[in-house]
Amino acid sequence: MNRIYSLIFALLPILVSAQYTEIINSNLPGNSQSAYAVGARVLQFEGGLWYERNNHKQMGTSMNFTGVNYAVRYGFFREQLEVMLNGTFAYDKTFLPNATTTHIGFVNNTIGAKYLLFKPKFLDEQPNIYSWKANNSFRWRNLTPSIAIYAGMNFLPNSRYYYEQIPTLSPKVAAIFQAEPIPRVVVVANLIADRFLKKDSSEYSYIFTLTHNLDNGWFSIFAEQQGIFSDRYNDQITRFGVAYIASHNLQLNADMGFGWNDTPQRYMGLIGVSYRIDKHNSFIKKKLKEKVEPTKISHKKKAKKRKKNVFD
Prior knowledge:
The chain is mostly beta strands. The protein is built from 3 helices and 12 strands. A hairpin with a 4-residue loop joins strand 3 (about 80-95) and strand 4. The relative contact order is 0.18. Residues about 1-15 have low confidence and may be disordered.
């Protein structure tokens, strides 16, 4: 029996080291994606109420947006893989020089999948219980990022928003990098190509997000810079925010941001929540059952002793 328990504990690091964390790991606050999946058999919901005001200096117009951002993420098959649905539903009121218009509908929906290609082995090392400095000092190796790729498809865009010529279906891909240069500090970088099949609708962007978990462990603060480049719209957007871990499966967050361009000038804010349904332990049990099979012990029958004959 001891040998079986030893094998189980030897397998556990292989099974749980890839993605899953005991505390919810959300992409909120901010617009970037983490390199890590939510974990196999974990269903996670992320979303929030947002408000944005746009002022177009040259056209003399302003727009007020109110809406809901939502994401559904699910990990399956392997720890490194997750599928997700992201979207935005909005109501806007536009003030023109001589008129006012309103619209309501889906701004966008995107369904896709993310897969972790590489994770540095040192991230799975156990802390050094004899040295505080070894666990908290900067090391150059800490700059080595985990790397993931994302591929998705935009669908059901609302032509009343933004530009009339946005295609009904269009691809979206991203390269995702994530590193932890010092403890409790995480840097995430996303390089994104969106709707790139047609030049007039192509959009390219980057997002850099810096998150710092405070000493109490339940609060985090973040800063984010996003650059957007296309033939129709270019901007730099800066965001700041805070997140609170209310429980192992629940996170609350808020952020606010602004754009640097004045065509239009953008101001935005969001109050969000993330919640997960965690069935990861059932995945671990299944994998352990597949890896560890009971050892059958065969008992050899003892040879029967030949009875002595009275004539022997």
